[in-house]
């Protein structure tokens, strides 16, 4: 698969600053863990790898619409905005996975949304409930 120029593997130093397992965006650049990045370079990448890329592309589109500074400030300081942004990105990811007859570990995402990674945007039970509803609706 040919990747857009704004998609890159994690920089080597990132492991010292954040604990991310799949990917993240910084401004308009998408950083993916090595396994996902390398899988996406294959002729037939794994559906989960494509879904992760789709999730991050949603964030990049939002950054383009709102601007890097506005998006960054709102994402960090507004739990409501952060949750909204994550849910629209997960919705896109879930749609793709369901179209491919794939499943996804909602429990893992609920744990992440209720942790430091997403600045404790929700409690675990709230996150699990919202994600299960989202999965059913897409």
Explain what you see.
The protein is mainly alpha-helical and 138 residues long. The chain has one domain. It has six helices and three strands. Strands 1-3-2 form a three-stranded mixed sheet. A hairpin with a 2-residue loop joins strand 2 and strand 3.
Radius of gyration: 15 Å
Major pleated sheet: 3 strands, mixed
Oligomer: single chain
How many β strands by DSSP? 3
Strand order of the largest sheet: 1-3-2
Order of H and E elements? EEEHHHHHH
Question: What would you say about this model in short?
Answer:
This protein is mainly α and 138 residues long. It has helices at residues 34-40, 47-66, 68-77, 79-99, 106-113, 124-137; strands at 7-9, 23-26, 29-32. The chain has one domain (7-137).
Provide keyphrases for this structure.
single chain, 138 residues, mainly alpha, 3-stranded mixed sheet, 6 helices, 3 strands, 8% strand
